């Protein structure tokens, strides 16, 4: 039976590190402030708190929606939703935020149809909550029937995952929201069911993610990386981080260049989804292969093409590395143009431009005159190969020596190079931060998240952490943001440990 999302009655089970005083005081204070603010807002204590964390991806950038493996982990930063269930009256949600000046209180009534409509053109903060509501109501109706009437809820939300910062605040928000609705209606949901729902839910706000963000938020466990596999179906393996000599640290640094995926998607994130999908169907057509639809964002993925072309060539028994190397050679030899117009792609596929746009560009708007199929496919296959090498290096022995750490760092550096030049999802600020960190002693530095801003992740020897932090402050933050406050600067750099995934916090934990 699939594991359920845990219900916990102690903050140690969420934020602790196994030591007697393992919870940093700021986490206790923040949680206590949430509960007390809820009492002031609604004159009663919450019944429970739904929680989902952000995530950092060590390697495997922009390949989950092509159904290739990735290696993320949850961070401590999270979205907390305090909930009081309203048993009677018209089902509605009262949605407040601890930062009420920035995020004003709203109310939403659930129509009798049970269908929640989200205005994608109006990018309100509450849209992500409603996205979680939409998917969870569908799940609840499947379980209880079409006559199911959801309970009303009073909610207070507190999120410290930076919006647009590359730690996947949107996935954390959607996952926590969906979990809150299902918990309020008495459903103990499995991690797999929550994942399946949240991937679809986030697409209702116009973001066609591949599932890595939600998987890391839901499935992660403290002290482990999460090896996520998406083909032929999702599977998660908890990978222990070996002891290292010398010791190292994962350092996450904000660029403060924000990239709201829901706003910039037509020319950034969703455009890449279209490009890799078109690359898969064009390659299949060139090899006279009929792809069966898969569960990727637009129904056809590069992983799907790899499977079918290897099957056709009788090479499915070869190693994954052999297969990926083979499709890299195919891309280099068969996709020979720097960019393809709609007309050129339609001609290859033997369909009209109108049908091309209807089949591959109608789910969401795309702003592009041409499509870089070769470059995008090369990034996906080469990044998939880097993930295999990273995972192999972690599993070679119980200890990571300096040679292995340098190897891991080099793979991260290669990812950044590809993100900047081949997939074109970096930005000058991210490139600058990575260069500064490497010069100051980081083994490896790269963007993490959707890109075009957001966060960087760095593999840093323990004895170089201070040097890297000071260099980033002096050469990036103080130069780019001369008026940056000490509080903002403190939040800019996070020393991350693999964190705990989604949970419902109740019972004694609310006695603060």
- What does the overall shape look like? globular
Number of strands: 17
| Unreliable spans | none
Radius of gyration: 23 Å
Termini separation:
35 Å
Strands of the largest sheet, in order across it?
Answer: 1-17-2-3-6-4-5
- Reported by name, the CATH topology of the largest domain is Ribosomal Protein S5, domain 2
Helical proportion, percent range: 40-55%
> Which architecture of the largest domain per CATH?
2-Layer Sandwich
Domain Galactokinase N-terminal: 36-84
InterPro entries: Galactokinase (IPR000705), Galactokinase_CS (IPR019741), GalKase_N (IPR019539), GHMP_kinase_C_dom (IPR013750), GHMP_kinase_C_sf (IPR036554), GHMP_kinase_N_dom (IPR006204), GHMP_knse_ATP-bd_CS (IPR006203), Mevalonate/galactokinase (IPR006206)
Keywords: ATP-binding, Carbohydrate metabolism, Galactose metabolism, Kinase, Lipid biosynthesis, Lipid metabolism, Nucleotide-binding, Steroid biosynthesis, Steroid metabolism, Sterol biosynthesis, Sterol metabolism, Transferase
Family: Belongs to the GHMP kinase family. GalK subfamily.
Give a short synopsis of this structure.
Helices cover 43% and strands 19% of the residues.
Task: Walk me through what this model shows.
The chain starts with 6 loop residues before the first strand and ends in a 7-residue tail after the last strand. Helices cover 43% and strands 19% of the residues. It has two domains: 7-247 and 499-510, 2-Layer Sandwich (Ribosomal Protein S5, domain 2), CATH 3.30.230.10; 272-424, de novo design (two linked rop proteins) (Up-down Bundle). The mean pLDDT is 92. Strand 14 and strand 15 form a beta hairpin. It is globular and about 65 Å long. The strands form five sheets. Strands 1-17-2-3-6-4-5 form a seven-stranded mixed β-sheet, sandwiched between helices. A four-stranded antiparallel β-sheet has the order 14-15-10-16. The chain has a two-stranded antiparallel ribbon with strand order 7-8. It has 512 residues and is α+β, with helices and mostly antiparallel strands. The chain contains 17 helices and 17 strands. Helix 8 packs across helix 13 (373-395), helix 10 (320-334) runs antiparallel to helix 13 and helix 11 (342-349) crosses helix 12 (353-360).
């Amino acid at each position: 039976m699939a594991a359920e999302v845990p219900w916990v009655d102690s903050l140690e089970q969420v934020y602790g590190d196994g030591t007697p005083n393992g919870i940093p005081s700021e986490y206790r204070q923040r949680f206590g402030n949430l509960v007390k603010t809820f009492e002031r807002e609604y004159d009663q204590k919450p019944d429970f708190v739904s929680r989902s964390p952000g995530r950092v991806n060590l390697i495997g950038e922009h390949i989950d929606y092509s159904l290739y493996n990735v290696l993320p982990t949850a961070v401590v930063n999270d979205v907390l939703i305090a909930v009081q269930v309203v048993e009677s009256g018209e089902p509605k949600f009262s949605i407040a935020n601890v930062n009420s000046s920035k995020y004003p209180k709203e109310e939403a009534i659930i129509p009798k149809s049970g269908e929640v409509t989200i205005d994608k053109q109006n990018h309100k903060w509450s849209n992500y909550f409603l996205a979680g509501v939409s998917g969870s109501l569908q799940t609840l109706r499947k379980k209880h029937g079409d006559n199911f009437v959801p309970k009303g809820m009073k909610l207070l939300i507190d999120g410290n995952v930076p919006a647009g910062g590359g730690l996947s605040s949107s996935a954390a928000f959607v996952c926590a929201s969906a979990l809150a609705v299902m918990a309020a209606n008495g459903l103990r949901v499995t991690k797999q069911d929550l994942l399946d729902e949240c991937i679809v839910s986030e697409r209702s706000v116009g973001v066609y993610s591949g599932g890595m963000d939600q998987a890391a938020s839901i499935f992660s466990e403290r002290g482990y990386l999460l090896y996520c596999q998406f083909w032929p179906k999702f599977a998660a393996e908890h990978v222990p981080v070996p002891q290292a000599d010398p010791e190292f640290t994962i350092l996450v640094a904000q660029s403060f260049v924000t990239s709201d995926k829901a706003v910039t998607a037509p020319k950034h994130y969703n455009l890449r989804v279209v490009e890799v999908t078109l690359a898969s169907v064009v390659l299949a057509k060139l090899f006279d292969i009929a792809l069966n639809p898969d569960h990727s964002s637009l129904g056809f993925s590069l992983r799907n093409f790899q499977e079918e072309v290897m099957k056709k060539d009788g090479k499915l028994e070869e190693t994954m590395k052999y297969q990926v190397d083979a499709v890299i050679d195919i891309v280099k030899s068969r996709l020979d143009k720097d960019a393809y117009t709609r007309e050129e792609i339609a001609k290859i596929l033997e369909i009209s431009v109108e049908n091309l746009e209807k089949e591959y560009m109608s789910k969401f708007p795309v702003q592009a005159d041409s499509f870089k199929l070769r470059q995008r496919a090369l990034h996906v296959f080469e990044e998939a190969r880097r993930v295999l090498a990273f995972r192999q290096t972690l599993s070679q022995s119980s200890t990571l020596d300096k040679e292995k750490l340098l190897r891991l760092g080099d793979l991260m550096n290669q990812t950044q190079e590809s993100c900047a030049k081949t997939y074109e999802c970096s930005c000058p600020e991210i490139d600058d931060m990575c260069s500064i960190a490497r010069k100051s002693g980081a083994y490896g530095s790269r963007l993490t998240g959707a890109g075009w801003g957001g966060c960087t992740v760095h593999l840093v020897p323990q004895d170089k952490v201070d040097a890297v932090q000071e260099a980033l402050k002096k050469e990036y933050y103080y130069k780019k943001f001369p008026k940056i406050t000490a509080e903002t600067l403190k939040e800019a750099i996070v020393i991350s440990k693999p964190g705990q995934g989604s949970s419902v916090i109740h019972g004694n934990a609310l006695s603060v």
